[in-house]
Every structure is written in structure tokens, then in C-alpha cells.
Sequence to fold (553 residues):
Amino acid sequence: MFKREIKINLKSFILWTFILCSIFLVVFLIYPSLVKSDNMKMMDELMKVFPEDFLKSFNMDISSISTAFGWLQTEGLIFIYLVTGAFAAILGSNLILKEEDDKTIEYLNSLPTTRTKIAISKITAGLIYIIAMVLFIGLFNYIGLISSEDINDKIFFYLSLSPLLTSLVIFSLSMFIATFISKTKTMVGISLGIVFGSYILNILSTISESIEFLKYFSIFTLADTRNIIVNSSLNPAMLFISLSLTIMFLVLTLIKYNKKELV
Amino acid sequence: MKAALEIKNLTKYYGDILGVKNLNLELKKGEIFGFIGPNGAGKSTTLRCIMNLINKNEGEIYINGILFDKDNIPLKEIIGYLPSEINLYEDLTVQEILNYHQSFYKKDFSKNRNKLVKLFKLDENKKIENLSLGNLKKLGIVLALMHEPEILILDEPTSGLDPIMQQNFYNLLLEEKKKGKTILYSTHVLNEVAKICDRVGIIKEGTLLKIEAIENLHKLNLFYITIISEDVNKIIKELKLNKYELNNNLIKFRNTIDINILLKELTKHKISKLLVEEASLEDIFLHYYK
Fold:
């Protein structure tokens, strides 16, 4: 059962990882030539004309895009959060619901297994793929970066792991919501809505202090990016909240899935 | 002796719509029980409730006297289930799904698996998405039977099978019965029931109307009488018939009158044609359905 989950989700894992790695590969290839030119300094100067709040939204007030690592801390991370988040959302939506959509759940449930075992094998496969994606991209970026410049290993390590804090919550929340829904298409829409909606809330919260409270409604707040870049450390509270939410949603998923009307 | 399968007070509603109501049924070990009823009568709902695939509103299922809930793996191991619509993983080949099925059981069933694959002439290299409806049904049968279950729950198993395969399947079930297997056989094909079942339960609008041994149904001695006569209206009056089909001078009714009295009455009239037919099983079932 678990092996099958790994097998059927492998293609999607490879595809999403490939998309992300391709973006970074292009950046790593063109950055060394960009850095040598004067354009980059001009670019940094140009950035200063933007309002501070705007720069803050992209972490450009605390890092410079004149290096590849600087770019990673600004725009690059956005790609990572959104792509890993979307991958986690789609996985969370599909793992349980695809069997119901295809009606194969009737066969699976008639076999000598339990719903808890079915759900656990799906959750485990999902978690493995999300962790594998974050680690693979982290490693890919590390190799790409150290070949051309010096980087702060500690900041890089925390930044590379930070997408886990968001994508695990997105995954577990999507799994839980999926136990209330019966159609995969509806669920993918909802979960991607959560990812992009959450990201927009996060951006908005940095623009003005009056709407800063919006960050409490955004999963991306958990990534704690600004703190990592400024203080070279990860706020343990964020780690705790993220893991607690993940565990809570997964336990609720198991409870609700056991009661769900499946066919 | 404990019943091989017992359904107690089963009630299932889909929202406000009734699926089955207060259904009670006991299957003895080694019997083939025909579960018949028209479409939408509640046959599949009952079978899905037995398999714990859907939540029951009320009622319990017992297998060999043990409460069968959805997490009871040892009991699941001794049940084979064939749904009416078979949905399997289309990306797999026949061989891969058979291997996958085997992986859920500790005991090796390869001998029985090979025997069944051969009997139903299945091509193990074919992908499930490329199987015809009939072949998919055959694969479903192999999956339901390959782990040598003690109890078989079959939901319209022969739909889509050609006559030769149907016969193979009937023979196989009779063989399984000889080995002591208990079979719940849901169908709306009435002659199947007559061929292989020991007892039959008739379900209509979610209620189990009657349980009867097949031989008793034959013994009911039901006759249909068809008469063509100019005096049909007089005959109806004299025989005090309540239910009949009338078409000009032709009348057809199920006879409940002693045959001697009937003949005495009929001799008083000019009869053009008289036809006495033994009711088929189909007539008997239709009698319950109406």
C-alpha cells in the first residue's frame, strides 16, 4: 500500500522538483556574469527608490540582490515557498480523495486493512515527498551557490529548511479538509486557494502596520524568513507552532477519515 | 450452530432517502443465498453495509458469531467481496493487481490464483484500463476468490459475462459450496437463483419481504389459468375473482381455487380455449415485487 503511494506520486514529485530546480539553475548560470557587470550595482541603487514597505515584502531591505544568495533570500525563497506549498497542497488533496474519485476505495477498504492504516500510508508517503523536495532543493541550491560565491552556512541551512514549516502545515491542513470533501477538483481549488491566499495575506501584512495583524492568518508567517536572515537563527516558537499544527491536523484527519462516508 | 453471516436490524438512510430498513438475515454455513430484488431495492446497500464500506444508521453484522466492524482484519481475511461495479487501479496490469491483492494476505495463494486466472482465461500482462467490461468482471471474480475466502459476498457477479463464462462461474460456486463456503449472491437475474441458490430473500424498497427455500417456491404449486370465452364476465362473477387480467374475451388469473371446483364451474360455460400453466420462478418473484 505504502509502496504504491510512493510509486504513483513519484512523477508529480519529479515534475515539481524539476520546475523549481530549473528556475534556480538558470539563476545560478546567469548570476556570475551579472555580478561582474556594473548593472547589478545600478540595480541595487534602483531598488532604493522603491518604498521601504515594498522592499520589506520581498526582504529586499535586509538583503541585496547583487549576489545569487541575495536573490535566493528575496525572490528565490518566494518561489520555493509557493512551489513547495502548492506541491504539498496538491498532495494533501489528492492522496485521500483520488481513491474516492476513482472509486477504488471500495476495493481497498474490502481488503484486510483498516482505514487508519490506509490513511497513515498515504500521510507517510506525502511527508516523505515534501521533506525530500525541500532537502533536494536545499542541496541543489547549496551546490549551485558555493560554486560561485561565499555564503553564510547557518542562514542558508535555516532558510533551506524553512519551507518545511509552511509546507507541512499546508499538507496536513489539506489532508484534513479533504476528509470533508468528496471531489478532488474542488479540494485542489480550496488548497491552492489557501496557499496563494495565505501568501497574499503575508505580503499585505508587511505593507502597513495597520494591517500587520493579517500575518496571523497566513501560514507563510511560520517560515520566519526575516528573523533567519537578520538573526541567523530560527525562532523555536515557529517550529513548535508549525509541528503542533501539523500533528493536530494529521490526528484530526485520522479521526475524521475513520468516520467518513466513502462510497 | 452459529450463523456464518448474520445481519441484525440493519437500517441505512442516505440523508432522507431510505436504503434498507430493519433488515434481519441469517446465512447458514455452506449455503448459497440468493438476494434478489429490482434495481434500487437496497441489495447493494445491504452488501456494502455488510462490508462496512458505508456507515450504518443502525444494526450489526456478525461473521461466525463475531461482531464484524470495519477494523476487524481477521474477519476481513475470510471474506471475498465482488462489487457490482468494479473499479481498480487502471495504471496497473492484471498481474500487478493480483500481486497487490496477495500482499495483503500472509498465506500464499498463488496456486488458487493461477487456477482462477486459467479458468477465466485472463491475460495477466494486460493493463486494467484496457480490459473490457467482461474481462474486468472476471478479474473482479478472481480477486474475490483468490484468497480462498470462507464467505463470499457477490453483487451481480455475472453481468457482463458471456454464457460460457457464466456457466464456468456457476460450476465454480457450486464447487465452493461443496467445500463449505457460504455465499450471498445478489442479482436480479431470476433464473440464476433457480440454478444455484438454496434459499432466496426478496427485497423491495429497502424491506426484506420474504425468505424462502427455492424448493418451497417450486412447491407453492401456483398455477395461471387463461380462458377465452364469451362468458368471461360471468365467470369472473361466479369465481369471485379479485385479481385478473382481462382482454376482450380473454382472462388470465392466478388460480387459488381448488382445481375440481374450478372445473365444475367452467363446465357451465362455453369455453373456446383453456390454458393451465405452472407459474415460473419469475412469476412467483413478480408476484412479490408488485
Remarks:
- The domain at 220-289 of chain B is CATH 3.30.70.930 (Alpha-Beta Plaits).
- DSSP finds eleven helices and 14 strands in chain B.
- Chain B has a mean pLDDT of 90.
